[in-house]
Amino acid sequence: MTSMPRGGAAHVRAVVRRRRAVAVVGAVSAGLLVLSACDKPTPRATVTVGHNSVSTEAECWEDGGNLGQEKAAKCALKKGSDSIDVPQSETLRIGVDPEIADTGWALWINGQQVTPVYKKTYYSFQGVDLFSEQQGQAAPKQLYISVVEQDKADSGVSKSYKGVWNFKLVNDDA
To answer: Does the first or last residue of the chain, that is N or C, have fewer Cβ atoms within 10 Å of its Cβ?
Structure first.
């Protein structure tokens, strides 16, 4: 049988405790480092047609700032990768996070604003035919819509644009 000198066991326990403490501090530090490297996700916008929905984060986002109209318009022209099939005359529903609704948002089609600014988290466009034929032209097979977070312009004050969410609508009847 081996014996440790008096106080040896206490020394071993102290060393083990220190190692555990160092390991815990290291794990916490590594976790905080990983979290600090992550960007805070942007608010989300959702498009729903029938029973199908698609949701995305912002294509362009300026948290606490202003993209400016030119940058927002340029961003709204980017082609959305999240697509949804839209049958003719189906109801198009747009849902936004409350943070977007607090500022206000408008629907843009192919880079052009087509609605007034809404301050609601949800808006339903009943029976809209987005793919109607235009003066002798065939109905488009797809179009791009954007939810653009923007405030209403007060008299003499320019609008601010905070974010753009892009979606691709596919003509289900083409």
So the answer is: N
